[in-house]
Amino acid sequence: MQTSFTAEQLRDPDIQSSNKILRTCVHCGMCTATCPTFVLLGDELDSPRGRIYLMQDMLESGRPATAEVVTHIDRCLSCLSCMTTCPSGVNYMHLIDHGRRYVEETYTRPWHERLLRNTLVRVLPSPSRMRWALTAARLAKPFRALLPGGVFGSRLRAMLDLAPTHLPPRQVVNGVHRADGTRRGRVALLAGCAQQVLAPSINAATIRLLTRLGYDVVVPPSAGCCGALTHHMGQHDPAMAAARTNIAAWSAEMAGEGLDAILINTSGCGTTVKDYGFMFRDEPEQAQAAQISALAADISQFLSRIGYAPTRDPAGLTVAYHAACSLQHGQSVTAEPKTLLRKAGFTVVEPAEGHLCCGSAGTYNLLQPEIAGRLRERKLDNIRRTTPDLIAAGNIGCLTQLAGAGLPTIHTVELLDWMAGGPRPAALPA
Amino acid sequence: MSAPATEAALAEAIADAYAAKEPVLVQGAGTKHGMLRPVQAARSLSTRNLSGITLYAPKELVISARAGTPITEIKAALAEHGQHLTAEPPDLSDLLGVPGNQTLGGIVATNLSGPRRIVAGAMRDQILGIRAVDGTGEIFHSGGRVLKNVTGLDLCKLLSGSHGTLGIMTEITLKILPAPEQTGTLVIPGLDATAAVATLSAALGSPYGVSGAAWLPPDAAARIPELAGFNASVALMRIEEFAASVTYRTARLAQDLQPHGRAELLGDTISRSVWRSVRDVTPLTVEPGEAVWRVSVRPSAGPGILAATGLRGFLDWGGGLVWLVGDPASHPAVTAAATAAKGIWTLMHAPDSLRASADVIPPEPPVLAAIGRRVKAVMDPAGILNPGRMAAGA
Amino acid sequence: MLALPEPKADILARRDEIVAGLRAILPASGVITEPLRLKPYETDGLPAYRQIPLAVALPETTEQVAAVLKLCHSIGVRVIPRGAGTSLSGGATPLADAVVLGLMRMNRILEIDYADRCATVQAGVTNIGITQAVAGNGFFYAPDPSSQLACMIGGNVGMNSGGAHCLKYGVTANNLLGLTAVTIEGDILHLGGNHLDAAGYDWLGLITGSEGMLVVVTEVMVRILRGPEGARAMLAAFRSNEIAGQCVDAIIGSGIIPVALEFMDRPAIHACEAFAHAGYPLDAEAMLIIEVEGSVAEQDDLLDRIKRLCEPFEPLSMRVSQSPEESLAIWKGRKGAFGAVGRISPDYMCMDGTIPTSRLPEVLRRIGEMSDQYGLKVANIFHAGDGNLHPLVMFDANDPDSFHRAEAFGADILKLCVEVGGCLTGEHGVGLEKRDLMRFQFSEPELERQRRLKDAFDPAWLLNPAKVFPLQDKPRQAA
Ligand SMILES: Cc1cc2nc3c(=O)[nH]c(=O)nc-3n(C[C@H](O)[C@H](O)[C@H](O)COP(=O)(O)OP(=O)(O)OC[C@H]3O[C@@H](n4cnc5c(N)ncnc54)[C@H](O)[C@@H]3O)c2cc1C
Ligand code: SF4
Ligand code: SF4
């Protein structure tokens, strides 16, 4: 598509990158119908093509972002369904990342927005602050009805609703977990931030399964949040700082005993780690970052690569596989989890509209509770129609979002670990 | 009756009538003279001398012919290349008691299609292009000679089925297809209309490409020699394909339809003859003074139309096309039944008294009728083409 | 560059009144008026032409559509109906003094009737949405434009859209049973129904493909068909366009009508392969995708016959798809073809002429010559069975000269199509893009007749008035 950046603007590497993306878009509109917000809201401004247009206009003008544009950018889930659909190969992810950053840099949000966003930025990436916040939220639940109306109130309510009623005990996974028997290799695991607090059983299952398969699993104590949460809120510096810490930690491991892979069992984080190479394209760490992105793999990809076999008899359960957006659209990992689950003896069903987001999308369900809620209901309706025994997904965000609807939500890796000798996932009724 | 031999002469004849403001009865061979309402006109004009195939490109699946070309001539030319008229237009001359060699223009202007309509589209769906003369004598064209064309408003569709009231087609280009290698028919005897339509519906909902689905009550079945032996009503389902596929598909379909009844298979020659009879509506006879109706409804409503009117008749198009014959006094019953089923009716044949006094097709709601009058005024400003043919005063 | 009619100053002056009227009919989110938010509606699938509209209205019911139209009619505001905005001919391009009437919120499936094999849906349901709704029962909606993921049934009716499988199953017009539509006066019409054919004039036929100029469609009743037992595609690669064209003739001449018969030339093959990874033959000059239907044995039999028909043309390779996934990938490449060209060129214009199939080699040769002459690359995709040719002219919109050359090149291609006995557009519609070329296919009196038929529906020329007909000095469009 035509663009009209000045030569001056094009000297900015970010503009250069976005210009390239914009020029790839041919405005065919194929992406609109697979965009969850367009399907719900029926307005092109809430479609990828519309947002691309708005962002182009915003970036070309060079003026601060306006409230109208921010509304539509904020409503984007970053689910990347549009990227799967786009035949032209438009990298919407890099464009919206740029757009969000531009918004954060040029637009002043109302005070309560700022407060909320700053709180999230401080709390979510830190397991200890997150535990504290969730405990507070649990205590606040009875007072839900007293919250004010309006956007602010509804967001607070959304937070309280999402906070689990009891928190699992703290588990520390930092350090090296040695392979059982003959060692086949060595991998790093991203322990994650929110997931560690909400569902430590996922990391536990991952480590059990990998060590049983003959892999040393390293969780460098200095590695932490991948930076995705802040990155998606347009908070460039904190995101880069988080990523930088991880790059340093993993690079040290690679230089030391070496790594066969960097594994991620929260696909939302996986998409970001796989993008480190791009994020650091103009930074001194560029080469290391690219190497890390190349080594990064979703746990399901890695298990498919090294071979997985169950040891237990099939459990006779029907699993509705929910494809997390970050996995299916962000990383184009579609077949592996289903194949593994089938191998493990489960009957796998795929609900209709599998390409649509469940509404979790990082902090989206906290910031846009209305749309997130409608997507959740739509997703659950589609899932219920397949009459499964449980829901499996490869992303903690989705698992939390879809929980509490009468169906157990369990990470794929916990099911695989169970069938290969691990404990029965606690979420499954006996 | 004038019968111009060229398009220019025809245009001149119409221009002359337009100048004189004299109505013109327009026809091809005149075989459908008795359809709809009688036309009172000072002049009459036939396209029968505008005859001959003007283009036939078998590999491009197109044929063009002048409007007065007999259908038989076109079919013969197509048959030489193993092709056929996809919409299977009927020859109703026996039914309507008007012998003659119907023309291409006539079949398009009445948009009559046969049993294959359900899979291959109506006559109007095959029209790729037309040349025509409007009510002022002006020559125009629409469409062309290629299979896909959305350039401008589709006057081909507007003129097909317009019974010569919007223009006189002089040349027509059709999409054609290879004729299937073989035809096979499954017969399930003894079903009542409702059970039969459920059966036909199952057959049409099967993956075997059923290209004909009809039900004849016992008396109608008895009039087709090849079916008389059943001594019962018959549900007929046709497959047209390569020979091996006909064998395979009829067997599979018969198996799938077992819950509906035991199906017998009719071979190629018999099948073709039976479907010709269904197409041409020969299972019905028309006594002097009787009327003929053609009702189109959703298939599941077909049996209800037969029951509600109590007339002699049968079902084609999986139940969706109801042919009815009987007392002209049943006209209100027919129109009421069709309307109640949200369908449409056409009075195909009746004594002039009924034709002149009743609605022969469903009247249009006022907004649409007003648009219709404006369209008519564009195409035939003086209202001289087949006046009153489709509706009184139109 | 195509001119748009002058905006009417009196309408622009009454903008506030119009907006207030719309707000009285529609919820707040259904009326868009801020210039910044109007911008994404300034164009459709042909972004070379743009115009920001006066306002956008997003109704949710037929009654709201009727109320909006009544309002616009009473004030004399032009209205541009819009579905998904994937038109490749600029059919949904706005006017400065027009309200864009977007049907995308009307996206509900209303009724599915398997016994009578029909479905009723709102105009904003996507083409593939219909098939997805009935696929569980083995049914499908036949016309399958490559844009089916996104384009809406109302837009399909507007353009009489076709698809790769319409050689066997027909285009939109052949699969419609009924419409609910609203006239510019705001009157609601129910046309056709769940029965076949009309007894009076074929309004459905006239409205289909009328590009939003006659009525606004709000509900559509379509036929749904039971799918075949199975389908399989094969690829055949050839040394030259001519040879591939001859092979197409041989197949059709043999009496076999494949459900789809698609042709791609070398640049198209390369662009699509980069997107779909379907194993397209990169060494070939031309490739055919041939699909057949039926049971596995029937597919085998037909594919064998086709292979034998291909052999005399010394194909470089022939590959029969071995799995549903492989067939899907083969089609993904073809259906993504236009967008995929976006990978090799920043912009493209997609032509859509139809030609008599026998003229293909000649037409492709002449397009090649023009390509050299204009200095622009072109990739050709061709619905070979029905002669519908899609040359994709590649250009760079940031370079005005390149755009002007592309426009001229495209026009020359379409004139060539008409010259060899074909037409300007096979399925994308005339829209804005080919408006001025209509003179090459129709005489002035013929154009005037069509204009007068529009008069019959829309005497004041408020519905999508600047499309399809050359603007010239026509007071209807210019006023
Ligand atoms: C990548 C790509 C591939 C394509 N492939 C094909 C193909 O294979 N075959 C094909 O035929 N087309 C194809 N197209 C063209 C386009 O998708 C079709 O023309 C489609 O039918 C347009 O639908 P839409 O919903 O996007 O309509 P729009 O583009 O929004 O509108 C199209 C026209 O219809 C009118 N209109 C829209 N809705 C209504 C309504 N409810 N009532 C009245 N008028 C209305 C508009 O005014 C306009 O004139 C393709 C387009 C793209 C971008
Ligand atoms: S990322 Fe998701 S929500 Fe955002 S534009 Fe793309 S499809 Fe829509
Ligand atoms: S599908 Fe791709 S090229 Fe088409 S509009 Fe969307 S982003 Fe642009």
Write up what this structure looks like.
With about 425 residues, chain A is of the alpha/beta class. Chain A contains 24 helices and 9 strands. In chain A, strands 1-3-2-4-5 form a 5-stranded mixed beta sheet. A 4-stranded parallel beta sheet of chain A has the order 7-6-8-9, with helices on both faces. The model of chain A has no long low-confidence stretch (mean pLDDT about 90). Chain B folds into 3 domains: about 5-180, 2-Layer Sandwich (Uridine Diphospho-n-acetylenolpyruvylglucosamine Reductase, domain 3), CATH 3.30.465; about 180-280, Alpha-Beta Plaits (2-Layer Sandwich), CATH 3.30.70.2190; about 290-355, Alpha-Beta Plaits (2-Layer Sandwich). Helix content of chain B is about 35%, strand content about 25%. Chain B has helices spanning about 5-20, 70-80, 95, 105-110, 115-120, 155-160, 195-205, 220, 225-230, 245-255, 270-280, 300-310, 330-340, 350-355, 365-380, and strands at about 25, 45, 55, 60-65, 85, 125-135, 140-145, 170-175, 175-180, 180-190, 210-215, 235-240, 265, 290-295, 310-315, 320-325, 345-350. In chain B, the strands form 5 sheets. A 5-stranded antiparallel beta sheet of chain B has the order 3-4-8-6-7. Chain B has a 4-stranded antiparallel beta sheet with strand order 11-12-10-13, with helices on both faces. The radius of gyration of chain B is 21 Å and the shape is globular. The mean pLDDT of chain B is about 95. Among the domains of chain C are: about 10-105, 2-Layer Sandwich (Uridine Diphospho-n-acetylenolpyruvylglucosamine Reductase, domain 2), CATH 3.30.43.10; about 110-225, Uridine Diphospho-n-acetylenolpyruvylglucosamine Reductase, domain 3; about 230-340, Alpha-Beta Plaits, CATH 3.30.70.2190. Chain C is globular and about 70 Å long. Chain C has helices at about 10-15, 15-25, 35-40, 60-75, 125-135, 155-160, 165-170, 205, 240-255, 265-275, 295-310, 325-335, 335-340, 360-375, 400-420, 440, 445-455, 475-479, and strands spanning about 30, 55, 80, 100, 110-115, 120, 140, 175-180, 190, 215-225, 225, 230-240, 260-265, 285-295, 315-320, 345-350, 380-385, 390-395. In chain C, helix 2 runs antiparallel to helix 4 and helix 9 packs antiparallel against helix 14. Chains in contact: A-C, B-C. Chains B and C meet through strand 7, helix 6, strand 9, helix 7 and helix 10 of B and strand 9, helix 8, helix 9, helix 11 and helix 17 of C. One iron/sulfur cluster binds near residues 29, 48, 49, 52 and 85 of chain A.
